[in-house]
Write a structure and sequence with these properties.
Blueprint (H helix, E strand, L loop, with lengths): L1 H12 L19 H34 L6 E5 L5 H17 L3 E5 L5 H7 L7 E6 H9 L11 E16 L8 H10 L5 E4 L5 H13 L4 E4 L3 H9 L5 E5 H10 L3 E5 L25 E9 L4 H15 L2 H9 L3 E2 L4 H22 L5
Length: 361
Amino acid sequence: MMNMLRRRLKRLTKWIPSSQGTGESAQCRRESRGWVRRSRLKCCCAPSALFLSMFLWTLLASARESSFPNRPIRLVTSEVGGSADIGARLLAHGLTGRLGQQVIVDNRGSGIIPGDIVARSRPDGYTLLFFGGTFWLQPLLRKNVPYDPIRDFAPITQAVISPTILVVHPSLPAYSVKELIALAKARPGELNYAMGSPGSSNHIGAELFKAMAGLDIVGVGYKGNGPAVGGLLASQVQLMFATGASVTPHIKSGRLRGLAVGSANPSPVAPELPTIAASGLPGYESISITALFGPAKTPQAIIDRLNRESVSYLKTAEAKERFLNTGAEAAPTSPEELGAKVKAEISKMAKVIKNAGIRAE
C-alpha cells in the first residue's frame, strides 16, 4: 500500500506548476496558444492536485504508523551488566514477541550518552531509551547537558521500580532505623556510607536520609555500585543505601544486615523488611525508577502501541517473576503518569542535590 501511495504522489506532484511573483505559472506565459491551452488546463488542475498530494501524504504517514513496526527496534540503555541493561534485555524479549520485530539492546554506558543519542534520533519509534532516574537528573548534576529530559523525550511507560535498601555491616550495633539514627547522632562524622558514582541512586538516597534525619555521616565514593558493596562487605564503611539486586544475596547469607527499604510501601523485593518511613523517618522515600522513552514528536499512535505492548508484557506473571529475581518490581504506567512522575522527581531531588552540593563532573 505504501509503495502504491508513493507512486501516485510522485505522478501528482508533476501537475503542480512552478510559480513566479504574479501567482501565474511559467507555462501560462508561453506565447504559443496550444501551449497556453494545455498550461491553463494544468493550472486549473493544480489546486486539486495539491489537495490530493497533501491527502496522500497524510495517508502515507498513517500507513507508516499502522504498519509499525516493520523493521527491528533499537533499545538504547546503560553499560553491560548494569540494572538498566538487565531490565532492557528482559523488556526486549517481551516486546520482540508482541511486536513481531526484533528489539535489539544497544549498550552505551552511563551519564548523558544514551539520552543524547535518543534525543537526536528520528521520532519514528525505532530508537528508544530504557534508563533510570540518573537520565532525567543529569541537568541537575552537571553543566552543558545536550538534552532537556522533559522537552526532548516522549514518555512511554514506567517499567520497573527498585527500592533502596538500607544495609549495615554486621559489626555495627544498629538493628533498626531508629537505632542507626541514634548511633549516628551520638557519633557525628564517624559513620561512613558507601556510594557509587556521584548522583547515583545510592548517593542521593543517602543524602536524602542524612538531610531528613539531621545527621552528620560521610560519603565514600567507589567506582560503581559493585565496588561500593565490596567496600561495605570488607568493613571499609559502615552502611549503604543499595539496590535490591546488589545486596539481597548478602542479606540472606548474613554478611550484611538489612534494616529497611526506601519504598513508601513494603516491597516484594525484600518482604521481610519494613519501610524506612515506618521505622523512624516518616515521609522518607527513595526508589530507583527505570522507564521507556522515545524521542519528542513521536506519533501518538506509535507511543500508544509501544505502551500497550509494554504494559501487557510487564503485567504477566513471567515478567513479574523475572524482574523480581533481579531485585526490581514490574510497575507499568500510562505515558501521562510517567511524565508527571519525572517532573515530580526532578522537583523533589533538585533541593536535595543543591543542598548536598552533588556534582557529576
